Amino acid sequence: MKVEDVNRCQIQEWYPKFKSITLKTILLELPESFMDYLNDDSGPFLLPVSMLSEDALPNRVCKPEEEEDFEVSEGSGDESEPPPTRPCFPELELKIKESIEFLGGAVFPKLNWSSPKDSAWISSSGSLKCTSLSDIALLLRSSDSITHDLCHAYDSCTDKTSSRPQQLYLALRKWYPSFRPEMEFRCFVWGERLVGVSQREVTVYYPALVERKNHLEELILDFFLNYIEGRFKSENYAFDIYVTKDGKVKLVDFNPWGAFTLALLFTWEELERLSREAGGGFEFRIVESHCAVRPGLKTAVPYDYLDTSPGSGWDQFLRNVEEFRHQ
Fold it and tell me: Phi and psi (nearest 5°) for 251?
């Protein structure tokens, strides 16, 4: 894989050309100070100060009687260091606020390549829906996918000269409450030929997909032939699409072939085999039974959050609760 193949999949590169067939998006150049903030793991996890009083998490209500318990007398030797200063990005926050208002009041964020799907669990809504800089910062700082854009974008390139792009962008994409995850698909192109299509959400079985499989196959092929084929300049790549309730197909994203792109219901070896087979058709895979579901990003939460085995944090917490109840 070449650097140019990865660069073509950056949203700021392909969005102007495919604007009419994709989701409404506003692109903002990120200042170096914000990129440093996203990359900083040397101290505590601090959300930016909101100049507009729009915080992702509620402020703690302090009670004077509680604070007295933590007062430290002078000269005790237990005086703690002053708390670190929260970062502040007033210009970026204002641009984000204006963009969110223009896009209808809510967005979901991504950087050049990746969206923080793996950190959706940490938001108050359990989704990527954001209405402020604080919401966005919470998702971005918590995401391993975003770390890829910041530090490992070109790791799979044979001609890489750096680990990150010269400029990072924040893409704010219009949030659609009616979005149905079962209608998102990933399409794989080799040698400019569509060779495979996979259901994007592989952790759930959707019976309606089985019923509509043949119709969806026709819609996806027509979309590729009419809007993608020959227009995207790489020979080998993947692209994500979404099928609306009225049968329209929307482009969601482009991804490099292989590397950090998930093959979902395929393996990359299977896709390469399909690319060598004669004929102009493609293979369309969906989850066709409850037994065929696969683990995915919905399980991307800290292990301690899920672990309930003896000796785990949850186990100790439940023991403490039980002891308290019997006091």
Answer: -75, 135
> The pTM is what?
0.81
CA atoms within 13 A on the CB side of 18: 30
Q: Round to whole Å and give the CA distance between 165 and 316.
A: 45
Nearest-angstrom CA–CA distance, 241 and 126: 22
- In angstroms, what CA-CA distances link 307 with 28, 143, 304, 311? 39, 20, 5, 10
**Banded pLDDT at 110 (limits 50, 70, 90):** very high
The DSSP secondary-structure symbol of 155 reads T
DSSP 290: G
Phi-psi region of 70 (alpha: psi -120 to 50; beta: other; left: phi over 0): alpha
Q: How far apart are CA 70 and CA 78, in angstroms?
A: 11
What is the per-residue pLDDT across 93-105, written as a single tens digit (0 to 9) for each?
Answer: 999 999 999 999 9
Task: Give 312's pLDDT tier (boundaries 50, 70, 90).
Answer: low
CA–CA distance, 51 with 38 (Å, rounded to integer): 19
Strand 283-285 with 193-199, pairing: parallel
Q: Which two tokens stand for residue 271?
A: 């896709």
Q: Of 150, 137, 68, nearest to 109 (Cα)? A: 137
**Secondary structure of residue 7 in the 3-state scheme:** helix
The pair of structure tokens assigned to 70 is: 């933590």
* Distances from the Cα of 116 to the Cα of 135, 176, 190, angstroms: 12, 17, 27
Kindly report, residue by residue over 26-64, the tens digit of the pLDDT. 999 999 999 999 988 887 888 998 887 766 555 444 444
Which among 95, 146, 105 has a CA at the least distance from the CA of 122?
146
Predicted local distance difference test score (pLDDT) of residue 83: 73
Place of tokens 């979902």: 264
CA dist 118 and 142 (Å) reads: 8
Counted residue by residue, the chain has a size of 327
The 3 state secondary structure assigned to 251-278 is EEEEEECCCCCCCCCCCHHHHHHHHHCC
Report the distance separating Cα 31 and Cα 29, nearest Å. 6
d(CA 51, CA 122): 23
